[in-house]
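seq:
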Amino acid sequence: MSNAIINTKYEHFNPVLDKVHILLDDAKNEFINNQNNRKWKKIIVSLMFRLYEQFDSVHLLAKNDRIIDSSIIYRSLYNLEVLIQYLLIDPSKKTEEYISQSNTLLTQIQRKISEKKSFFFLMLEDIYKLDNNLSSLNKKKKFRQKSIKQMAEEAGLIADYEFAYWLLSNIEHSNVSSIFELKGLPGLDLVSKSSDFPYFIQFLVLNSSIISVIRTTEKCSNVMKFKKYIQFDYYWNEYSNTLSNILGVNFKIDNTHPDKLRFYDTKLNILKEYSRT
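struct:
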């Protein structure tokens, strides 16, 4: 399986990506028609469109062999997925909490403006005074923001956290080992010089980003009650078929556990499990 990952090219994901873009087009239409006047729906729709933009960015960069940049954007995409999935646990209540978090940022902005230490914040002072939305938000009650890890635990996405944060944080913050591994440069004895590392990262980023957008769209469909029936099992099957062809093993979805996405590898007798909801 390792050799299959090393030999994987971006084009190998095209069969499922073609289907995913059809799904996203259908979902966008549903989001546009399903907002009504409920505040939480408008917020979720805005966040989902941002999620889809980041998905496109991940794949545009990966297609052009910008592995480091695509992995950093995926980390941001995962942040956003966690937030959306967390809000969908109790949309009306949690979106109000989410809006209230803006007060923390505004308090910090006010403090920076009063310090007058930066030309940037002097400019920001003019914007702050003119923006009525900022002024009104500042009057809302304060709310203590939860960490991404806390939200991931509540949303059932903690398994993905280990990859998106532990591994990709090293890349985002230019940890020395990640630089040498990704660039394939000779160097320090302390550094692991695995030339296969970039292929591993690329595979996981492409794989995980596809799971994220299908999974989050499916959750939105259930919570927001899309009018159009979308066959999500079809998209999961297309994904598993593509993965089977890439890795040279036979993944089949186990639908007996609807809350989990389970791929049963009939060749290696291994069960791969991801959170589906």
